[in-house]
Automatic annotation (TrEMBL):
Lineage of the species this protein comes from: Eukaryota, Metazoa, Ecdysozoa, Arthropoda, Hexapoda
GO molecular function: N-methyltransferase activity; protein methyltransferase activity; S-adenosylmethionine-dependent methyltransferase activity
Native organism: Culex quinquefasciatus
Domain SET: 6-247
Pfam families recorded: SET (PF00856)
Protein name (record): SET domain-containing protein
SUPFAM superfamilies tied to this protein: SET domain
Length: 508
């Protein structure tokens, strides 16, 4: 993979540690690096699953007689199998202490790939910040103690020179490295079928050097063999940092910062976090109680909620109350469409229609409407519901354009849903003679262009992932849409012939 060295270089600073910088101008969509994982493993609190593919397990490995496997898998990693086979661990050890799996894999690198072991050892685990914390104590109980008390590592390193001393700090380091650096990926191996959403974590030391920004310029895609690819989402100039968003794009600043502080141990001070309006998206803003048009945002320097239209300020107690109300509804959300609509109306009035908590409810609603469209033929879905889905997608795309510019998985999915809805609504409007054939044609062409844009982003997704499946469906839809456009064009052509001079561009 030597040629990727031309794309980036690794720099170091006191504030950021090591980070990636573009070594030359990178075009939108350009592949920056490909990396195979050092270790892939389940989250420490995962349920027992197959050690080979991470789906539900139903049997055990015949060789080591300890590793859980599924119906399809007959074995797992050879070094891991040997480790459990040669250990004196109880036959039910992994069923009682499944939490240890990923740490054991990290430690086994010492046997299988010494360079990668030391690379893992050098990665940031924030041990001192974690020591004595809640997560430290939990990991002590569920990972460290079972391994040390059962003497699991008494034999690692045997016959291969230097013996590895496995102690509490080393095991906590393995856990910390995963918490701080790992990427969430889908687990299933190489099968051609669609990967299920059984999420595991993969350690990629190179990709983990990407610094964080709440408005990233890079995105990742993982294939069926857990190889991770980093691409430029927008053009990245030589010398610019390669930036990835390690938290959720549609979280508001308070939630993003809390998530990053708790999981990654830093306070984000990116442009988006430092702007009270979140780059004008108002994801955290609350409606002013004094004027009708104003939105109040939090100015951390003066610790005040100030209105952008009048001198009014909101009290912290009031803001806390409206946030709590909305958060409770977002968590206890009912999946009935009328209840969701009611909650959206209520919280839009106190927060604002684009507040992240309202957007969360809207995403749930859009999902419900999509399910409805999938469950019955679009022709049977009431037009106002299709129209509503269209509105919700448009709103989400507006926000994403600012917060996840360029190529983005969320944008790709949003564009797909938007344009399919546009197609269905337009067709209904034409059937009821509310629009002319020409307007139908215009909207279909618009839908075609949007669908093409969506596909251009979805093509980065590996075919075995659910997004990869969506790519296939989108391409099939595009084919059908083009056939329909050809038919309508013929219709418009014949109908408009006498008027052809009026609007020649329509049938171009
Ligand atoms: Zn399996
Ligand atoms: Zn085995
Ligand atoms: Zn930030
Ligand atoms: Zn105001």
């Amino acid at each position: 993979m030597a040629r990727f060295e031309e794309n980036y270089e690794i720099l170091e600073s006191d504030r950021l540690g090591r980070y990636l910088v573009a070594k030359r101008d990178l075009a939108r969509g350009e592949l920056i690096l490909v990396e195979r994982p050092t270790v892939v493993g389940p989250h420490w609190d995962s349920d027992v699953c197959c050690l080979n593919c991470f789906r539900n397990s139903c049997t055990i490995c015949r060789l080591c007689r300890r590793a859980p496997l599924c119906y399809d898998c007959t074995g797992h990693d050879e070094a891991e199998c040997r480790f459990y086979r040669e250990s004196n661990l109880d036959i039910n050890f992994l069923f009682n202490h499944f939490n240890v799996v990923t740490s054991v894999r990290c430690l086994l690198l010492y046997r299988t790939d010494r360079d990668r072991f030391w690379e893992m050892r050098r990665m940031e685990a924030h041990l001192e910040k974690r020591r004595g914390s809640e997560i430290w104590d939990i990991l002590s109980k569920y990972v460290v103690e079972p391994l040390l008390q059962n003497g699991a590592f008494d034999r690692v390193g045997d016959g291969e020179g230097e013996k590895l001393t496995v102690n509490e700090d080393l095991i906590q380091h393995c856990c910390g490295v995963f918490d701080v650096n790992a990427f969430e990926i889908r687990g299933n191996g190489t099968s051609q079928s669609v990967q299920q959403n059984c999420f595991v974590r993969g350690l990629y030391p190179r990709a983990a050097l990407m610094a964080h920004d709440c408005v990233p310029n890079a995105f990742i895609s993982v294939d069926g063999e857990s190889n991770l690819r980093v691409y430029a989402a927008v053009p990245i100039e030589k010398g610019q940092m390669v930036l990835f968003n390690y938290t959720r794009c549609l979280f508001g600043t308070f939630e993003r910062r809390a998530h990053l502080r708790k999981g990654k141990y830093f306070l984000c001070t990116c442009a988006r976090c430092e702007d009270p309006t979140e780059l004008g998206t108002h994801l955290c803003s609350v409606r002013c109680t004094n004027c009708s048009a104003g939105l109040c945002s939090y100015y951390s320097k003066v610790t005040k909620w100030k209105c952008d239209k009048c001198p009014h300020e909101l009290t912290r107690e009031y803001v806390k109350q409206v946030f709590t109300n909305a958060r409770n509804d977002a968590m206890a959300r009912s999946f009935e469409i009328p209840e969701l609509e009611e909650a959206i109306t209520r919280h839009s009035a106190t927060l604002n229609p684009r507040n992240s908590l309202v957007l969360e409810l809207k995403q749930t609603l859009a999902g419900e409407l999509r399910n409805l469209c999938l469950a019955s033929h679009p022709a049977n879905v009431p037009r106002h519901l299709l129209q509503r889905k269209l509105e919700l997608c448009a709103e989400l795309l507006d926000v994403l354009r600012v917060l996840e510019p360029g190529i983005s998985r969320l944008t790709a999915i949003g564009l797909y849903e938007y344009n399919v809805s546009l197609w269905n609504v337009t067709r209904k409007n034409f059937e009821t003679k509310e629009i002319s054939a020409k307007e139908l044609l215009d909207n279909l062409i618009k839908g075609e262009s949007g669908l093409k844009q969506s596909i251009s982003m979805l093509l980065f997704e590996h075919p075995t992932t659910p997004e990869g499946q969506l790519t296939k469906r989108a391409m099939q839809d595009l084919k059908e849409l083009r056939e329909e456009i050809a038919q309508v064009r013929a219709l418009v052509g014949s109908n408009l012939k006498p008027l052809a001079e009026d609007k020649p561009s329509i049938i171009d």
